[in-house]
Design a protein that fits this description.
Layout lengths: L1 H22 L7 H11 L11 E3 L2 E3 L2 H16 L6 H11 L19 H10 L12 H5 L3 H17 L10 E6 L11 E6 L2 H6 L1
Antiparallel strand pairs: 1-2, 3-4
């Protein structure tokens, strides 16, 4: 009886807290603060932040130094220089092969996008984190039909003209420490790239 009453009070408190918070949301409220609040309500802790790195017996503590060190490490580890001689031999051999790009461009996969394809893409999209533009899938999923047509026209213009928006080349990079590894070593991180949800809808 007491436990049931306690759970009911907790649920009511969470509901009241969320309603009060939502009523204060305005155009200046960032999507990050909203999702942080949702995670706290669900009891999820925030991601581990990188406080410092140790590189060549030097401690890096500023955000630019940490970011540059992680970027350089990931770039090197992902480059051909980090690959084995056997892999590089196969890579060079395959790169010598000529590819046939001749086409009349009348294949079905070259057709323009349809409104049904756009709606299906949005329906199947999971509510993942936003990219630098902070436009969430929930915004796209609740667009009126007239706005969806504008978005569809934008996608088809990009598809036909080949003019890719430069902002879609940008991503928010989140470093995730590998479990059980020393978090001060830049080699012990994997990166997650958060790109525009609008771009992923087209992709």
């Amino acid at each position: 009886m007491v436990l049931a009453k306690a759970r009911r009070i907790i649920r009511q408190a969470k509901k009241s807290s969320w309603q009060g918070y939502v009523s204060r949301i305005n155009s200046r409220t960032s999507s990050k603060s909203v999702w942080d609040r949702i995670r706290r309500i669900k009891g999820k802790s925030s991601a581990l932040s990188v406080n410092h790195l140790n590189v060549d017996n030097t401690t890096l503590t500023t955000f630019p130094d940490i970011a540059n060190s992680l970027a350089s490490t990931i770039s090197f580890n992902s480059s051909s220089n980090f690959s084995s001689d056997a892999f590089q031999g196969i890579k060079h051999q395959q790169e010598k092969r000529r590819l046939n790009f001749k086409s009349r461009n009348d294949e079905c996969y070259n057709d323009k996008f349809s409104i049904s394809e756009l709606r299906d893409s949005l329906k199947r999209a999971r509510d993942t984190a936003t990219g630098p533009d902070e436009i969430h899938y929930q915004i796209l999923k609740h667009l009126p039909f007239s706005t969806l047509l504008i978005l569809l026209d934008l996608f088809n213009r990009i598809w036909v003209d080949g003019n890719f928006p430069p902002s879609w080349n940008e991503a928010t990079i989140i470093p995730i420490p590998k479990p059980g590894k020393n978090p001060t070593n830049p080699n012990n991180y994997r990166l997650i790239a958060l790109i525009s949800c609008i771009y992923k809808t087209m992709d």
